[in-house]
Amino acid sequence: MPNDAKMLRRSALAAALLLPSMSSAGATTSLEKAKESGTVVVGISNEKPYGYVEPDGTVTGVIVEVLRAALEPIKIKKIEANVSQFSALIPGVTAHRFDVIGAGMYITPKRCQAIAFSIPITRVANVLAAKAGNPHKIHSLEDIAKSSSVKVGTQVGTAQVDDLHRAGIPEDHIVLFNRDTEAIAGLKADRVDAIYYPALEVSDLIKKFGAGDVERVAPYTIAKDNNGNPMLNYQAFGFNKDDADLVTAVNDGIKQLRTSGRLFKILEPYGFTEQDLPDPSVTAAQICSGS
C-alpha cells in the first residue's frame, strides 16, 4: 500500500504538470473564436470619423469600415464595439477585452513595445486649429514653443503629445483633454489658444462644432522629426501580441483592398485623399524600429 500510495501521488503530480501544457496547446486563438462566432470585437473611443456607434447601435467609422471589408474574405461579418477612452485602448487589447483597436491609432515605436500593428491604412499629418483670425499668429509648433503665453491642447494618450514635447513646448503650456470634442470646446472657451490634432479630425471638428468660430491654421508648417523630415503618421489596427494569426488575416485583407482599389473607395467619403494612402513598401516593422 505505501508503494501504491507513492505511485498514485507521482501520477497525480505528473498529471498536474501536464495540464497547463495541454491547456496551452489546445487554447483557442482570437481568430479562431472570431471565425467560429462570425464576430470580432473592436475597441473604439467613439470618435468620428474613425470608429463610433450610431444612435441605432450601428458600429461604423472609416477605420471600422476598413476592418469590416478586410475581414470579408474570412467570413467574419459582425463587428461589436467596446467603447473606451483612447488612453485605455492599449491596456484593453493587451487584456483581451476586445480583439482589435479600430480607433485610427498611429503606429509608434513606444506603442510597438506593447501591441502589434497591422500594415498601415493611412498616412496623415497633425495640424493646428485656432480661433477665427488666428489672433496669436500661430503657424507651427515652434511658434508655440517660442511664446511665453500661448497654450495648446490635445488628447491624452495620443502621439500628438509626443510631438508637442519634441517641439520643446513647456509642460505648463500643454493642456490634455479626454476627447477631441472637449478640446475644441476648450479652445472656444479660451482654456487654450490652439488645438493640435490629425488634419482630418480637425476639419471634422470645425465642421461640426466650430464653424465661424474656429479655423484650421494656414499657412502651417508640419512639425519635423529629429532628421528634419516632415512628421507623417501612419494609422493602423492594433492587436494583442499573442494574436499573430489575426494580424496576418487582417493584413491579407488590407492588401486585397489596396490591390483592388477598394481601400481608397472606403476612405474617400470620409475626407481622405489619394495622398493619404501610404506607400505599400512602408511596413509596421519599419515604423516600429524608427526607420
Automatic annotation (TrEMBL):
Residues 39-274 form the Solute-binding protein family 3/N-terminal domain. The keyword RNA-binding does not apply. Coiled coil: none annotated. Residues 1-27 form the signal peptide. InterPro entries: Ectoine_EhuB, Solute-binding_3/MltF_N. Keywords: Signal. It comes from the Bacteria. SMART domains: PBPb. NCBIfam families: ectoine_ehuB. This is Ectoine/hydroxyectoine ABC transporter substrate-binding protein EhuB. The gene is ehuB.
